[in-house]
Amino acid sequence: MTADAYDPAQDGARMSFRNDMSYGDYLDMDSLVAAQKPQSSAHDEMLFIIQHQTSELWMRLILHELSAARVSIARHEHSQAFKMLTRVARIFEQLNNAWDVLRTMTPSEYTLFRDSLGNSSGFQSHQYRLIEFMLGNRNLQMMKVHEHREDLHSRLTLELEQPSLYHVALRTLEQALDTTFPSECFRLQSPHQHSDVIMEAWARVYQSPEKHWAQYELAEKLVDLEDYFRRWRFNHVTTVERIIGFKRGTGGTSGVKYLRRMLEVELFPELWNVRGAL
Description:
Strand content: under 5%
Helix content: 55-70%
Mean pLDDT: 94
Largest sheet: none
Number of helices: 12
Radius of gyration: 23 Å
CATH architecture: Up-down Bundle
Shape: globular
Structural class: mainly alpha
CATH class: Mainly Alpha
Low-confidence stretches: none
């Protein structure tokens, strides 16, 4: 004898959504699950598409959080900013773990649909470029990739016209230590370069954390963020090498060689170099 099937309605669950918003309505699920359009009959192309689409969704959240964190830091609302920066670091951890799924695809499986990508490449992601620009790695050469889309190019240009997240953090550091950094440390349209003056300022913070606790914690949140960002980049390199070796990327880059070069980029160099100076 079997028990009657459980009826959620008995516990008050709403079962009819003819006139109410459902879960699928709220998330626009029809559009979401219809966005995967493989260009070949290869089984593993679906994995490849979903991997990159979900990464872009996470990057959209990263941009949302970084934008709010930049405003909070400028307003000295440190607790709110710290929460957002912690969340960004954890998002990069999530993105990092996703490489493990993509690595289940073998080189021969990728070869079956690689030609279907044409010249498309993650190198062309405007959201990734925005993240880099917001964090301070502002390489204007990368703008050329987005010239075919006026709306995206304009959005990137707008970002280049305002201080990066690190610029804003450095302004609060100036105020906390009653000092002034050289104007070249705040150039908007070029990558941030190491400054001994800034490193010495961070050294003061690390040497007396009890006096400068907000800046001390901000420094560690930024280091934590870049730490996870670096891990994501590293796993990207190893995943690409595992699947295509040293072939050129679909977007025309040198592939693994290009990605390895990107590993050398430091977003907040003074916060890493100060450790050897303490």
